[in-house]
Batch of 2 targets.
Target 1
Amino acid sequence: MNKVLDVSGLPSFAFGQRSILWWATLGMLAIEGTAFALLIAAYIFLKWRVPDWPPGFAPPDLRWGTLTTVIVLVSVIPNALTKRAAEQLDVAKTRLWLVVSFVFALAFCGVRALEFTTLNCWWDSNAYGSIVWTLLGIHTTHFVTDVIDTGVLMVIMFTDRVDANRFVDISENSFYYYFVIFSWLPIYAVIYLAPRFV
Amino acid sequence: MPSSISRLASFDRPLLLLSFLGIAGAPLLWLVTMQTGYVLAYQACDDRSKSWVIVPTVGMLAVVTGIALLSARTYRRAAAERHPLPLLGRISLAMALLITLLLAASAIGPLILHACD
């Protein structure tokens, strides 16, 4: 018996759970979320072992860390609008909100650079310094990756190379950006609030 | 950062930079390769030529292989240095080898698929 399935009627692209890319992104988020959780666990472990925390240093200054938190939380809005515009295949709005999202991301990168200067410790000072720099460094790596991805997608959107699959990519990029934003909140709490209030 | 914050040790700076070449440079190359491939896929399809994707990928693979070899040398040199250079040397080598493997795996796709797939 011939068991050939005709799939020519299926759409060539899809958003959300109907897209294989969405599941791939979800898998990646699971892996990266686990990595963040392990780093936070390492921080908590060290904190339990040391009665005087942070050991030998003042806690990181709140100013830049809090500002980056505000920037990423506000950037949820253009990110959501980018995702929505992409899923509506609206070229003009997608271009607009991608640019706005990109500007927010660049602002974040600038403030993040300042954040590293006010941690009040070096990466090689002691175990506390290492875990704080690693937490912030790993999160920054994720963010910079997303900035580059957003930049490339933005440039492509301003060419004549736009097709439906690019909108899927933009939608998935926005999905990933949510992860980068919301993974920052526990990291912010650990780096900035735990040394002061826990 | 206040200048009163002391650091544990002053390291062999070139060795430290070489260690971070594997730790940060190799993954960055992978990211650049992915984005380059993503953009050049259009041109490859237009020209019906996979060279647009294969040549940059192979080029990057050569560069990251160079980084892996450099990391192997760094690893040997760092082993005799003070903490944390030996650890950084090990991470650098492991990262460079992993990225070399990933880039080699990434090169398989363009070799098998057609330019417009």
Note: Residues 19-112 of chain B form one domain.
Target 2
Amino acid sequence: MPIKRSLPNILLLGLILACVPWMGLSAFWLSFLYLILYWSVLTLSWNVFSGYSGYFSFGHGAFFGIGIYTVAYMCGQLEYPFIQMVALGGVLSGATGVCIGAIVFRVKRVRGELFALLTLAVTFIISTIVLNTPIDGGPGVYLNSVQVPKLGPNLPATFYLLILILFILALFISKAIGSSKLGSALFAIHDDEDAAEVMGVPTFKTKLIALFISSALAGLAGGIHAVFVSYVTANEIFSINVPLFVVLMSILGGTRHWAGPALGALVITVLQYVFTIGDNALLGKMVLGLVLILVILFKPDGFLGGVARRNDKKEAKKIGEKYGVSLSSVKNSTPTHFHVDHQNSSAPHQTKERGLEPHTHNNWQSNQETLLEAQDLCMSFSGLKVLQNLNLEIYQGEILGLLGPNGSGKSTFINVISGHYKPTSGSLVFSGSDITHLQAHEIAQQGIARTYQIPRPFSNLTVFENTRLVASYARCISLNAATPFAIEALEKVGLEHKIDSLPQDLNLHQRKFLEFARALAAKPKLLMLDEVLSGLTPSEIQSAIALILNIKAQGTTILFVEHVMSAVMALADRVAVINHGQLLAKGDPKDVMRDPKVITAYLGKKLADA
Amino acid sequence: MINPWWAICILAPVFFVIGALIHALIRRFRMTAFNSLLLTFGLTVIIDAFIQWIWTADFRKLESVYSNSKFEIFGIYLPYAESFSFAISLICACSVYWVMKRTDMGKAVRAIAQDPQMATAYGINQKLITMCLAGFCTALAAVAGVCVSLIFTLNPSQLYTWIGVVFAVVMLGGLGSAFGPLLAGMLIGVSESITMVFIAPSWAPIVSFTLLIGLLLFRPDKI
């Protein structure tokens, strides 16, 4: 559901809740409602980054504590005005989040684990700093004298209304991010961060933005809470309770649903209250630990996880219907009809009808403009040289087949072009500009798309969302503007009837075609296909070949790594053979395949010559 | 009062079984790596509450046969408890190194770490070996716990402080290395002691994390 339609509902909820203080509730119940909303804000703020992106932070206590101590120090000790200092706490807390993120996210391996534990560590660091400086100094800070703007009939009502404003803001932000371009990038990062980056998502920036929002909201909540509790001590504020509760509430409610965390907060706060009035706080802690374990074991998606999934499917279906896509599952999944541009595609049609005979290679020679040029490209992994001084150019509009025995460096070549690896030396020039030092998402936005040999769909996003996300980020357009391109790409590969499926419901053939659809939706100038045919049946290979020729006919240049030789001979305008990371031969497919060096590389030397 | 050596001999096998059982549970539910982290986090909270319930949240000091006893070597007096812990850590690091590098079991573990499916295809009993490994890690943690109890004052909330220190040591020393963490542990221990003497004891907890953040800032590729 788009944000425009939920906004009135969220505001209505806010108005209803705002009437509560005038309904004659006692101060106790107002404080209880305050606590529910307060935990909801903390949990929603945690979820905006950690729940959506899968980077679990155990340091929410630190962000919350920064808010608390900003207000405690500035208002409690230096007597600055309250509201401004709450805002300052939010900003400081957000800035701390960004700093932590900027340090951790540069590490490639164990990012998730490192982030989780480093955020926990930061909590101790900040706690130690607060304890050893005049900010706290040890005995704690009293905030009784802080002047709070009078919003409600009495003080508990004022706190309740303050946190209510923040709650409505948090709920709105959670919903807005969840259904925005930023949100789908976070979901993609959750599922496969490297693939997301290669498909054009600026993952580093996305994570920092979301982390800023998340920690700033926690800081704001802390600022209000400081005055609510009116006496703060470092040991209590920076205890493990905040991160524990927040993680537990989010998981219980469902991290992928925008309102899930609030529901989880409601349930746990009530549960906690039941144990506290029974004077069983320790037992309550044990039960919480146990609930966390049970939820992880039996309901890892949380209460609203299933709802979120159904909503995604419904939305995909609705968009499909809007664009007149047939959703009947009876239809054969193999694409049979193509909207081929008939002006320059007589050759592809022949090939499609008569099987795997080579088509005439005439249309590339007239136009030898270089699209991509690799100059002296070297790539080594700690001493192992995978690419050695590779010089290779790809001409505008051609299909270049890249061949070579297993381990010869073909996939590495594709990984270097797409920015997955940075070359050790040498340069890559694409469309006249140097892309050697660009980040992977910038390369994707320049117009280079790829498929993976083993499909890497974003496993929790629908087929439609998978495709639209890539179209949106690779073309730098909004999600709505990307919708028609996603539909078009899915129709082209014949997956339009699977628009609301999750990748796990597709077979291998369909998942390979989803890879195709995502690459096509990016509208690349250069499309790199990494063994798209491997593992397909002969008839599926036929339809894939027809699809590739169709893509070429629309002017896309294709680099094509393949072991199915008949397909290479049928498709490629030129082939290049690499072995041990060095170029052996390049040129017309027939000539290259007769080259003695190539024959030796594939079949070995004759005994007499050896 | 029993001798710490005996404590280790009893606790290590018990915790081996506990670790193996937890691993079996994680396997049974086909948990993702991250969910298993959350599961152990939940267990930690339960254990924390349990310890508070039995021994309260007060600080306590273990009076063992080794507390206050020292011995002299080359004119330097060494406290017995610390020397005992250092000897144990040397023994553990050396035996882990030997097992991982020299035995078939160690080779199997390394093969599983690289490619579990291929390792299974070549006849390695992945299920059994990872269970043993999980048990072995838990047993080592129990041994470390005995050493901690000999030297430091004890308090339930320290659980979380130690997680942080362990994590910093492993990251500094290098994942999958036997002697790296030993060296990193010594580096952090010495830095903490220097901080305690020259600045103030209350600043000591952040030393390990400052070192870790320094490493992340300047050598992120080494992680």
Note: The radius of gyration of chain B is 19 Å.
